[in-house]
Request: fold
Amino acid sequence: MYDRCCSGGNTLNIQAYPLVTLALDRICEVYPFTMSFPLHSEPVKKSICKVGLINPPIVRKKAIEKEFETISGARRITALRALGYTEVACRLVPEDGISDLEVVLLNLFDNITTREFNPVEKGMALALLTSQMTREEVLVSYMPVLGLPKHEPSLDLHMMIAKELSGDIKIAIALGRMPLQVASELIYLPQCDQESVFKTIDYLMLNNNYQIQFIDLLKDMFFIAGSSITEFLLRANLTEIINDKNLSNPRKARKLMDHLRNLRNPTLAMAEKAFKESLASIALPEGDTIIAPQYFESPYYELRVRFKDREELNKKLDSIASLEGINRLLEPWKSGE
Reply:
């Protein structure tokens, strides 16, 4: 850990502060300066069980209450409590010996030199930093420390993630189960819609790519249907897919995404249906098929032909070109009208 923390030209020598043993029930369970999320950490507990507490937490005496406030080490103290410890050795900083700004900087460098921050923790750190200094100073001096670009939108996004999303959603982000792109969309939804979207994503265990597609489709349907996302997700045809016990989660996800695409673009859905019906009705040679362009955005179709020699290839191509129904197959928009 850094044992020196600089602020405004001053240097803090943390090792100079005394090491004292405190009862855990005298240390406040609210951690206003923490940059750790989630607080409960199995790796920290396992480390303590195996080799003991390596780095003592840093605390200071609270001005009024007969309690001590954690400057750095909230996760360690939480782990000790969970393991049944009743006391802990701490570095004790006098209540007037360190400013809140120095506390924030000390906590930041105590953590960031030993591990990488997840997006939620970056937001927590930025929120604390902006409470003690100007946004410009945070952007220029501390965004790079956190591995972030010096951009206002990135600063605001990470602070909103830390402040405005529920604990379950933040855990998914912190553990890498939800990408920032999805989190940035959830933030601007009403809280009930945030929870509905997250529960669906979490229940179906959608991968990152599906999560992005899912929320994009839901946003489109929000404008088309004119109802809240929560109301839309509760429609029977969607809940039937989600709760279908005969389907695995990956199959549910694919079926749900297809259904949402069809709802968003019913004309496309009709064209796809007409294409499949026309393809089934024509007598293509065995082993051959015709593949439509994705979303019918391209005018070109793909013909897959299986053959063993040039003579068989020519014969098959002539046969396919003369089949009845080919024109209808290649014009599904007209068939869907």
